[in-house]
User: Which sequence fits this backbone?
């Protein structure tokens, strides 16, 4: 009797408590939304105007992002970026962040960004940025990613208005949200114009070189190999009109191959290898896989069409500048001026 | 108790099992993401054609893999027999007693911090780790008034496993080569192993097996009890140490060759004992063959369960072995004293 | 309950009580020190002023948003894990029992990884719920499988080990086919981290822990009886099986609740009861609070060290609790050398 009462009690409590927490959290985000909705209608006109990239003073804007909406006033100058692509985008838009998380490779800042990152405070690793350091910087905008920082969203919001990008590797999403939040949509438009121009030019000039050539992107890690399906590099290649094998046109980011038996899946006319060569274990594993006779049987290998590429630009950078650098590398590769 | 009574029966069944093992071997070579007919397999050996993917797969990937599975499975089976005999506990096995995790930890330690170590170095590290954890588990399990009971040794093994796995994960996180690299070590993987490396462990495995076979009769005597054995003039301490050496050789080389594979050493001795009774002169050979067959089958399953990716083989053995373990535990958990 | 206290007082058991008091004071002092530590080292009076709302906004923010909730969560989660381990060790009558041995933590991990895989947009609240349910489900499974006209400690352990191997294998399987981000989050969860704890977590843990702790204390006498052995306990008229079931449920609830917030932090459930026993003895009415306080101390200190030693990198606390496990085991081995024959 006593037991059943206790057990029932515990179960009821679980449900109640979980309910409380859930409703707490949803109350919070609901509050933010209702608060902003009145502002939204007020500023609907202003927002529309701002997004047509005419305004330069910004005013109060409401940014829609992966975790709801946030109100931002004016043009933020004190910015903190909590993932690679955000840092890249902010710098591109002419805003040097006060603090940024460290890079995955070439620590603490990627070489291609080092010139622009003088005096930027290191906030620790992307997955667990140091909240106290962020507070100390007194930012007026935080750019983070839902996939990494969902748990600390409410805390970040208390420090400063925070916008969240859904993923970390979709650079156009990142650039768009950064542009809106930083009130630099003009600069973003300029970049897109340049991007479209360069990709169109490429498609035209390299048309006969890329026609009917299937290109695969692979990556060797310490104990497995990867083929990229829709990751960062693949989206850039798609923009440039470069074709990829049918079997690589799937919805996921890619596949992790555990066994050398799977080498035939890498079959393509040309292979770009974005392995991070700074990690010795990656190189050792790559050498092991490439000494397998199955590798020599691949079309690309037989025709000597396997090219190592810069893993920062093709993989870890994750931002518009990295994308542009990757584009330039592809340009050079195909001999397009 | 045993199914088979006479020597003739036992020999006959053993031969049958050997044939079965060869069948599994053949299946392992021909089945997988790419199914290759046995006819083609044979041709690969007789009339090797370097242009045919199938032939390359057979010779360079499937065959070494099957050989590894066979050797490792056999070693694990025999080391399981000895472990159970040594601890007089039908629920013991090298993985449950934490020997595997110690070997893995030391191997990871060696390869993380002494990257240019010759492959033999990793092997010796695995041996050292196996020895160390065996000693730790023995001491930890003997704590307390009632000495080394089966339950305590299992618990001690569990605690030591948890300890060494945490350390292993810690090193892998800190060494920055990415957490994903642990999978092949912690979960046991036969795929993609270097044939040369595998061949290195063969002498040690052979030594361990030979030692085990030589110990068959002494182990029989020892099983009747320490006092009885001593009364019959046996040097029990020496026998126990030799058993320990054999276990370490077999388990250590298995880990070095294929990472941590659990439950084979647990399940196989039980099957053997059900077939041939308590005579270790039969149990050991039976366990070698059964272990080889079991791991070959597990490896084949591992290829199909999450196509086109592959499950680590240690996962399969756990999924098969754990329910068996629970079944034994329910039947007569106290174990034989 | 009243009789318990009377007996305790009558025995003149002031020594354990004094030790409990000392532990509590130690915890409070550590709490104060840990709140002072961080990227910006604050002096105690600044902290005091900050709590009272009288210092500058930056300090206030650091305290309110980051340090106080994090330290409090560490204390509560550590206490929960300590008590959970004590309960388990008491009913299994073996000092090496811990929630991760019995598969409870494994169940939590499996459900957490399942959730991260199939509901990537699910949100952290539901992640917590998933892992909690996983812990309970695993405990239930182990209990049911170990039940054969009752549950003996031995069968419980063995089945628990079996179940924990299965959950570990399934978790590994899932991880080998997950996306990048899910794997990173999963591993972080499995190592255990107090990073990002907020006041919601504190509230949840506070209520949950208080209730479970209250029930655990109510069972302290039963646990003492169980410690005498199954036959003796049954002979004394104890409802052995019923009590065992409740104790296991409580243990799972506590460690599941803690894991829901801080992930699968290991070793506290193992170590805290040991230290507790050395300090206050085996009477559970003292041992349970002692383990709670010690567990709280361990996690608090580990987390503080983890977030300050490698600045600006914030290392997950679980890495450090594992590091504490090592000296503990070595100590145990050394200590046992004098005991074994």
Assistant:
């Amino acid at each position: 009797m006593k037991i059943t009462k206790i057990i029932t009690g515990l179960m009821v409590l679980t449900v109640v408590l979980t309910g409380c927490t859930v409703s707490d959290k949803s109350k919070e985000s609901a509050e933010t939304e209702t608060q902003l909705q009145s502002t939204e209608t007020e500023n609907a006109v202003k927002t529309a105007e701002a997004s047509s990239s005419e305004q330069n003073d910004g005013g109060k804007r409401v940014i829609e992002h992966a975790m709801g909406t946030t109100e931002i006033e004016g043009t933020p100058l004190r910015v903190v970026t909590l993932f690679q692509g955000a840092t890249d985008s902010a710098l591109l838009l002419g805003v040097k962040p006060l603090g940024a998380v460290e890079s995955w490779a070439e620590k603490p800042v990627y070489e291609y960004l080092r010139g622009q990152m003088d005096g930027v405070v290191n906030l620790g690793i992307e997955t667990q940025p140091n909240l106290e350091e962020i507070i100390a910087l007194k930012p007026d905008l935080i750019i983070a990613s839902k996939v990494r920082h969902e748990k600390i969203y409410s805390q970040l919001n208390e420090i400063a208005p925070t916008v969240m990008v859904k993923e970390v590797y979709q650079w156009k999403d990142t650039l768009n949200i950064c542009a809106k939040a930083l009130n630099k949509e003009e600069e973003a438009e300029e970049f897109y114009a340049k991007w479209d121009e360069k990709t169109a030019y490429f498609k035209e000039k390299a048309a006969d070189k890329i026609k009917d050539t299937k290109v695969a992107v692979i990556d060797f890690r310490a104990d497995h190999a990867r083929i990229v399906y829709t990751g960062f590099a693949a989206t850039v290649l798609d923009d440039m009109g470069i074709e990829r094998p049918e079997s690589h046109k799937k919805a996921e980011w890619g596949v992790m191959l555990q066994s050398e038996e799977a080498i035939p899946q890498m079959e393509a006319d040309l292979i770009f290898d974005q392995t991070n060569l700074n990690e010795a274990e990656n190189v050792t594993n790559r050498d092991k896989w490439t000494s397998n006779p199955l590798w020599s049987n691949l079309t690309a290998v037989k025709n000597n069409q396997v090219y190592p590429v810069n893993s920062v630009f093709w993989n870890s950078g994750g931002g518009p500048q990295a994308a542009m650098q990757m584009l330039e590398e592809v340009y050079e590769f195909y001999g397009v001026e | 108790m045993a199914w088979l009574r006479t020597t003739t029966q036992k020999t006959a069944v053993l031969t049958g099992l050997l044939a079965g093992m060869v069948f599994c071997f053949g299946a392992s070579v021909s089945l997988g993401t790419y199914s290759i007919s046995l006819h083609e397999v044979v041709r690969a050996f007789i009339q090797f054609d370097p242009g045919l993917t199938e032939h390359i797969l057979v010779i360079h990937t499937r065959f070494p893999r099957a050989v590894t599975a066979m050797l490792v499975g056999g070693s694990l089976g025999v080391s399981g027999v000895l472990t159970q005999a040594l601890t007089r506990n039908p629920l013991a096995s090298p993985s449950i007693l934490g020997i595997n995790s110690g070997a893995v930890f030391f191997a990871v330690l060696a390869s993380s911090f002494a990257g240019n170590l010759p492959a033999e170095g990793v092997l010796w590290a695995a041996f050292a780790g196996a020895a160390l954890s065996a000693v730790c588990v023995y001491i930890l399990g003997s704590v307390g008034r009632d000495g080394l009971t089966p339950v305590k040794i299992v618990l001690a093994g569990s605690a030591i496993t948890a300890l060494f796995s945490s350390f292993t994960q810690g090193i892998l996180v800190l060494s920055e080569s990415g957490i994903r690299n642990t999978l092949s070590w912690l979960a046991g993987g036969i795929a993609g192993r270097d044939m040369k490396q595998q061949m290195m462990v063969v002498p040690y495995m052979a030594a361990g097996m030979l030692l085990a076979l030589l110990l068959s009769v002494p182990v029989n005597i020892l099983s009747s009890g320490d006092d009885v054995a001593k009364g019959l003039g046996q040097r029990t301490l020496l026998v126990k140490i030799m058993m320990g050496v054999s276990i370490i050789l077999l388990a250590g080389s298995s880990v070095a060759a294929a990472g941590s594979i659990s439950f084979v050493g647990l399940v196989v001795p039980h099957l053997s004992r059900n077939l041939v009774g308590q005579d270790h002169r039969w149990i050991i050979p039976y366990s070698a063959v059964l272990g080889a067959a079991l791991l070959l089958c597990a490896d084949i399953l591992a290829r199909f369960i999450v196509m086109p990716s592959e499950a680590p083989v240690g996962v399969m053995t756990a999924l098969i072995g754990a329910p068996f373990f629970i079944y034994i535990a329910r039947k007569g958990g106290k174990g034989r004293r | 309950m009243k009789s318990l206290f009377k007996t305790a007082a009558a025995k003149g058991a002031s020594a354990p009580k004094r030790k409990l008091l000392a532990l509590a004071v130690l915890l409070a002092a550590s709490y104060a020190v840990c709140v002072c530590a961080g990227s910006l080292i604050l002096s105690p009076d600044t902290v005091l002023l900050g709590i009272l709302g009288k210092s500058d906004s930056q300090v206030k923010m650091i305290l309110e948003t980051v340090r106080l909730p994090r330290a409090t969560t560490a204390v509560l989660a550590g206490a929960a894990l300590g008590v959970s381990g004590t309960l388990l060790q008491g009913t299994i009558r073996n000092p090496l029992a811990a929630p991760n041995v019995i598969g409870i933590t494994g169940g939590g991990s499996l459900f957490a990884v399942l959730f991260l895989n199939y509901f990537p947009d699910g949100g952290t609240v539901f992640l917590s719920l998933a892992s909690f349910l996983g812990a309970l489900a695993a405990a239930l499974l182990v209990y049911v499988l170990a039940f054969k006209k009752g549950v003996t400690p031995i069968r419980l352990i063995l089945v628990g080990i079996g179940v924990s191997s299965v959950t570990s294998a399934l978790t590994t399987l899932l991880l080998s086919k997950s996306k990048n981000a899910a794997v990173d989050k999963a591993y972080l969860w499995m190592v255990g981290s107090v990073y990002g704890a907020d006041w919601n977590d504190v509230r949840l843990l506070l209520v949950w822990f208080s209730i479970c702790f209250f029930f655990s204390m109510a069972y302290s006498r039963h646990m003492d009886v169980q410690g005498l052995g199954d036959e003796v306990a049954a002979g004394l008229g104890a409802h052995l099986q019923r009590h065992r079931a409740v104790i296991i449920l409580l243990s799972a609830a506590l460690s599941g609740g803690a894991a829901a917030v801080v992930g699968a932090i290991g070793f506290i459930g193992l170590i805290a009861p040991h230290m507790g026993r050395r300090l206050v003895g085996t009477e559970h009415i003292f041992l349970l609070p002692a383990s709670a306080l010690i567990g709280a101390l361990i996690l608090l200190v580990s987390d503080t060290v983890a977030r300050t030693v490698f600045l600006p990198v914030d290392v997950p606390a679980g890495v450090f609790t594992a590091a504490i496990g090592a000296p503990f085991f070595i100590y145990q081995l050394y200590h046992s050398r004098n005991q074994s024959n």
The CA atoms of residues 29 and 232 of chain B lie 49 Å apart. The interface with chain A takes residues 32-34, 50-51, 53, 56-57, 59-62, 115, 177-178, 180-181, 183-184, 189, 191-192, 194, 308-310, 312 of chain B (CB under 8 Å).
